[in-house]
Please model this.
Amino acid sequence: MKITVLDGFTENPGDLSWAALEKFGDFTVYDRTPRTPSEIIRRIGDAEIVITNKCPITREILDACPKIKYISVLATGYNVVDVQYAAEKGIPVSNVPTYGTEAVGQFAIALLLEICSRVAHHSEAVHAGRWESAPDWTFWDYPLIELAGKTMGIIGFGRIGQTTGRIAKAMGMRILATGSRETEAGRAIASYTDLDTLLRESDVIALHCPLFPSTEGIINRDTIAKMKDGVILINNSRGPLIVEQDLADALNSGKVYAAGLDVVSTEPIRGDNPLLRAKNCFITPHISWAPREARARILDISAQNLEAFLNGAPINVVNAK
Model:
């Protein structure tokens, strides 16, 4: 089998090994591929196995590369592939559904703790000499917020939402949740409720829902108006869940006290994104998923996916008919 990885650098910048995938055939890795159809088509060439992270595999590319037999996505999200057209061509598409649950939940809490404790800011202030020259034995530049006793509302209460909820509950928070279905595991962590109640009662709102037409723009001018004054918003799920200008306006007015975001609508972020100039907006470059341990799981599961396909019983297929 001829195997091509189109954009391997973010998955493996050199601290992991491709050996688990290399063993299956003639293996080529490109760190990055320009996201133009002509270059993607050129690099796929006559490969039978295509592995992508964010390089789009469109109808045009599928038609131009007739030898493709299988597509593997080095991520959970698979919207970069025209999965329906791939299915029409008999090409299974597999993803990696569960590699980053703990890492993403941990990062959601990290964003929240940075907002509440401002660790990075105060460490920088100390290193700049401000404590040494302070008139008192202590100082702080921002309100410091204790989370125990406050309410976190989690929109989307699957594996990652429950991980975030479990950590927040251990810190003494009350957890409210909305999700597509209630589970016993979820009920052990949170009280399920409707969206309006969650918006009204939460001091912190965390987004962990998938991006569907029904959830796109779920945080907007109208839903923000239903929230408590001074609410904190956390999003390390998908950027388009938020109408960014509406959130920027709410941050600048103080309706939303702060936002911790690891994702935005267009990535890399554009210089004209209104959130870059909004008050109390903490933005990181989509790194929730990226601990070495989580990336190692991506490679391991992708190798399992490929082996299962080659054995005639593909797994983690997202476009099965």
User: Anything to note?
Assistant: The domain at 101-283 is CATH 3.40.50.720 (Rossmann fold). The mean pLDDT is 97. The longest helix spans residues 292-310.
